Amino acid sequence: MPTILILDGHCAAALALTRSLGRAGNRIAVGANRGMFAAATLSRYCNLRFEYPIPTDDADAFTALVADFARRHKVDMIIPVTDWTTYPISRYRDRFDRSCRLSLPSAQALETVSDKYATIELARSLGIPVPLTWLVRCAQDLGALPDLPFPIVVKDRFSARWFGNRAVFGSVAYAYTPTELRCLVTDRVAQAGDVLVQSFVAGMGIGFASFASNGDVCLPFQWRRIREVDPRGSGSSSSKSVPVDQRIRQFSTSLLQRSCFEGVAMVEYKQEAQSGRPILMEVNGRPWGSLQLAIYSGVNYPLHLARWRLEGITPPREIAYKQGITCRRVVAELTHLDQLRHGKPDKWPGSYPTLWTTLPRIAVPWYPGMRYDDLLLSDIRPGLAGIANWFRKRLGRNKSSGRTEKQVVTPLAVEQSAAKIVGFSRTGRVQLLDLGCGSGRDLTSWGVTASDKVMGIDIDGRRLAAARVRFPNRTYLQGAGECLPFADESFDRVISGVALPYMNIQKTLTEIHRILVPGGRLSLSLHLPNFTIAELLHNAIPRPVPTLFRLYVLANGSLLHCTGKTLGSLKGRTESFQTERGMKLALNRTGFINFSFSRGTGQTTETFIVEARKSKVMRPLAAAHAA
At what angle do helices 330-340 and 461-470 cross, to 10 degrees? Predict the structure, then answer.
């Protein structure tokens, strides 16, 4: 009986693999991040459970632990499921015994399909339709781009960008104005080194799966997305098997063959709304989220993969699979509804689903041809536990998202409440607040380690939803910097990356000072005057309203430079630039000490870095200001 280790037990594809290969009589071990909910570990087909440290924090240590587990339990095959584990296992593949097969393509093929820009360029050379795409290495590169209709997609080149043994998580965001585009590009380039700027493609999502072996591409399977977890674009919450489109099959076959890829892969397309053309989005050279749909339809990719890797049995060229099978994931459908509660995003082009039209469709529990990929009567525990975990996280989030005059959220209260996602008990770890966290970000460059307990706060609920997906081990709250929902002396450190310029600086610094422990540390990155001047010259003039607002920003920054204070908001918006003199005045007035100032490095627009500490002894003047 072969022993198969499936990594990334928290994701839907891992559960599909566990059930399929377990039913076939294999001994299944499931690995998952330490402390993370992993539905696949609860399956009746899971014989061994294995927890490991976060792979993206230390690929070397993670791989060493997996290799040791594989040796001790005589594992015959390892299947990494996500980009977070695939790269480390590939990079250190020589650590694994020859008797242990790795479900991986060659390192070169993996690099090609993981690199979204390389994939787009290869597809373009093969005549495959792709979105207009540019690789941008600094914000100034935007000036060379042609005018594109908004929204514009800002997408990381890799789902996980590795720097040594650590990774920066990729993201996808939408810019609706030139200013938003510049800010998004600046932020991503600062974190990842470059970013893709891409034209927006409206249309239905289509997935094409196949099995590549010895230069041949076989076992084609196709589906369309009925609903996506995030209606703006993401993995599917409901999908349906459809006949294979021969154009898509030809495109995908050419792409995989030229990539020299071997194994199971999913190629993602958008069917352009106007022309009906399939437009290539990306390639997933690993198991994908809707894998269970293919199994229900009759194409058991996990079983063929195991037989090919372990026994050398080549898969059949084609299977007449069932068409019209619909597969839904309950927790993904719930998240879809949660997204719809916020309504159509401002400036979103075209149609957008509504809560009240979608809810009746999701409320129908069954109809002929409909299946669930998480709920299965013969293996019910993973599905029920996943639903319970979804509600537990949302209830905890709602309870911790507000502030009244009589109630504040404290890290200790978060830890003590069973409904909270992550505890913030005083265990000797650094308690850290990411102020203006947006959609979440890697904080390694700020010196943050995996042992630090991180909480993020931002005013944008949609970006917070993305942050919770990217960093499930952190806690995220919705709130404003001018009125932080935390008790006094709650945090050891506050970090804010280019967020303070969009807040009332004196009020926010007072709040930061209040929540920091004595001796607590403040780390900021800020806008220099040349950023605002460039915005005025290149993105505002000659339009009256943007020009007026940029002049207000210049006035606000000048006032800060002279007095350490800023003006009130202009029609609900606040923004300013910062100088060393202005920040010294503002920090000193609020009670901070030990200022240090430096400039941000890299190829992006230069930023202004500030470090300061809260005094261990409250001075009377500072106390008066803080009051």
Answer: 160
